[in-house]
Amino acid sequence: MNLYAIRRRNAWESAEELEKVGARSKEVGDTEFPDNLAWIRTYVVKDEDGTLGSVCIYQATDIETVRDHAERVGMPADEVTEIADTVIVRPDPEAQPAA
């Protein structure tokens, strides 16, 4: 399986909305793609217009599986890019709650 970065722009109005979609994303991934896709992590970002977007890291068999998952969940996948390598300078800091 390969690693993919998914950029979702201006996708959510609130952290609560994001949490609901996240739960649905995990459910769909676990039940419909158990051997083809795994959600690794998500960085929630504040987009310029004040909405929330994200950069998600997924492991999947191919890019089409990532896009199919996003479509079934009903969330955007504005950019999907295969990750060539990972460089870790420091571990991620402790998670901060979304504002």
Quick recap:
The chain is α+β, with helices and mostly antiparallel strands and 99 residues long. Helix content is 29%, strand content 34%.
Name the helix and strand elements from N-terminus to C-terminus, one letter apiece. EHEEHE
Number of domains: 1
The best one-word shape is: globular
Query: What would CATH call the homologous superfamily?
Result: ORF SCO4226, nickel-binding ferredoxin-like monomer
Written account of the structure:
There is one protein chain. The protein is an alpha+beta fold and 99 residues long. The chain has one domain: Alpha-Beta Plaits. It contains 2 helices and 4 strands. Helix 1 packs across helix 2. The chain is globular, with a radius of gyration of 13 Å.
Name some characteristics of this structure.
alpha+beta; single chain; 99 residues; 29% helix; Alpha-Beta Plaits
Topology:
Elements (H helix, E strand, L loop, with lengths): L1 E11 L2 H18 L4 E10 L5 E9 L2 H11 L5 E4 L17
Antiparallel strand pairs: 1-3, 1-4, 2-3
